[in-house]
Design goal:
By secondary structure, the protein is α/β, with parallel strands linked by helices. The chain has 11 helices and 18 strands. Strands 1, 2, 8, 9, 10, 11, 17 and 18 form an 8-stranded mixed β-sheet that branches. Strands 5-6-4-13-14-15-12-16 form an 8-stranded mixed β-sheet. Helix 2 crosses helix 10 and helix 3 packs across helix 10. The structure holds flavin-adenine dinucleotide (FAD) and pyrrole-2-carboxylate (PYC).
């Protein structure tokens, strides 16, 4: 009886209150001018706006998003968070982000469902073993938790894995970052949006930026579908479309845009309690809190802007997943999609001033920027507020492609690109 009453209540409240839920953020018309305009309402853009307001006291800020918040790669990614990169510069940046993740739900007062379930990277051959060992040691030297597991320990940590990999992908060992894990992607966008809005930031959706007004080498504002908006400073955070926007501002970026795809299965009971990745075969898997297996693949081998990804990549990935986890062979896949990732030649991001004064660029995260969202927003806000990089993003400037001081993270990129 009690149950029926509660179900009735639930239905009545759903109908009665559905239209009166308070909005998590306002939807204002754009003002004539702002101190800072951020182009792109993904996680990185929203985080930048939040830290501009919170840390630097700059509240007259607008985030202009051409579609809906998180509709780009933020809402399309497979949510893996880790900081086990090879070089000191990357370790600094990604570990900064991981520390912010550890307090993010409290900071935003919004549950981003950060789950430190451990991220394991598999070794299938002697080369993988050497590379993973090298990276584990490099991580430890940088104070990042990282350990090497032999095959027996891999099986203990993830009992459903088949170490034989059907002969094609034998598992010889793995690296493990226990503090790594996953977070709920759209909650990250919504949490940052609500917290930025609370601090006075205007969030404007369905407002594509179509061009920039530049005078005497300095940005004056942005041309948008909702009219011209003046801005003292502009931050471009438009993953996948950053080279298009840079072209409109009159400079070139060394990035290539390619589709990266992912897919999820029908939901099942908890079966895999960690994240398992294989750089060598471009397949990785975790299980969402809803029970879906979240599976990712490699990038398509051609430039493209279709948010789909090609079938041969899906087939290759699922074949590898089935060989590593035979118990998943009869699972049905529910959804498949793609996102456009912009890739730098050294597989590291650009967080930098640009050749145009007052215009800043944050892009090139390739297949791995979700994990960096809080850290990226934090240091980019610093760069914009001070017109100078934060020490943690100094190495990720645009001019590294002319000085040659690249930060080559191809080995740690997890999904080769
Ligand atoms: P986005 O979320 O793409 O935001 C950019 C925004 O800019 C978009 O909303 C877009 O609509 C907007 N925009 C573009 N042009 C304009 C314009 N002209 N005017 C206004 N707005 C514009 N990373 C990880 O760390 N872990 C993972 O497990 C992982 N898995 C991935 C799986 C897939 C399938 C994909 C596609 C990516 C994955 N990534 C992962 C990478 C990660 O998703 C991205 O690096 C990260 O989300 C980039 O965030 P962002 O805020 O910069 O970009
Ligand atoms: O960078 O860890 C990563 C990642 C996992 C899946 C896609 N990117």
């Amino acid at each position: 009886m009690k149950t029926r009453y509660s179900i009735f209540n639930l239905a009545r409240n759903a109908l009665k209150y559905h239209e009166n839920w308070p909005e998590a953020w306002r939807s204002p018309e754009p003002k004539k001018s702002y101190d800072v305009v951020i182009v792109g309402g993904g996680g990185h853009g929203l985080a930048t706006a939040y830290y501009l307001a919170k840390v630097h006291g700059i509240h007259n800020v607008a985030v202009l998003e051409r579609g809906w918040l998180g509709g780009g790669n933020t809402g399309r990614n497979t949510t893996i968070v880790r900081s086990n990169y090879l070089w000191d510069q990357s370790a600094g940046l990604y570990e900064h982000a991981l520390k912010l993740w550890e307090g993010l739900s409290q900071d935003l007062n919004y549950n981003v469902m950060f789950s430190q379930r451990g991220v394991m990277n598999l070794a299938h051959n002697q080369h993988d073993l050497r590379e993973l060992n090298r990276r584990v040691n490099a991580n430890r030297l940088n104070g990042i938790d990282s350990e090497f597991l032999n095959a027996k320990q891999v099986k203990e940590f993830c009992p459903i894995i088949d170490l034989r990999g059907n002969g094609r992908y034998p598992v010889l060992g793995a690296s493990l970052q226990r503090r790594g894990g996953t977070a709920r992607h759209d909650a990250v966008a919504w949490g940052y949006a609500r917290a930025a809005d609370d601090r006075g930031v205007d969030i404007i959706q369905e407002c594509p930026v179509e061009g920039f007004r530049i005078s005497n080498g300095r940005v004056q504002g942005v041309e948008t579908a909702k009219g011209y908006i003046e801005a003292k400073k502009v931050g471009v955070v438009a993953a996948g479309h950053s080279s298009v926007l840079a072209n409109r501002a009159g400079f070139r970026l060394p990035v290539t845009s390619v589709p990266l795809q992912a897919l999820v299965s029908e939901p099942v009971k908890p079966t895999i309690g960690c994240v398992v990745m294989s750089n060598a075969v471009h397949a990785y898997i975790s299980q969402s809190d809803k029970g879906e297996l979240v599976i990712g693949a490699g990038v398509d081998k051609y430039v493209g802007y279709g948010q789909r990804g090609s079938l041969p990549v899906t087939e290759e990935t699922l074949a590898a997943i089935c060989e590593l986890f035979p118990m998943f062979r009869r699972m049905r896949m529910l959804r498949q999609w793609g996102g456009i990732v912009d890739v730098c030649p050294d597989a590291s991001p650009i967080i930098s001033k640009s050749p145009v004064d007052g215009l800043y660029i944050n892009c090139g995260w390739g297949t791995g920027g979700f994990k960096a969202t809080p850290g990226s927003g934090h240091v980019f806000a610093h760069t914009i507020a001070n017109d100078n990089p934060h020490p943690l993003n100094e190495a990720f400037s645009l001019d590294r492609f002319t000085t040659g001081f690249l930060v080559d993270e191809h080995g740690a990129a997890a999904v080769a690109h």
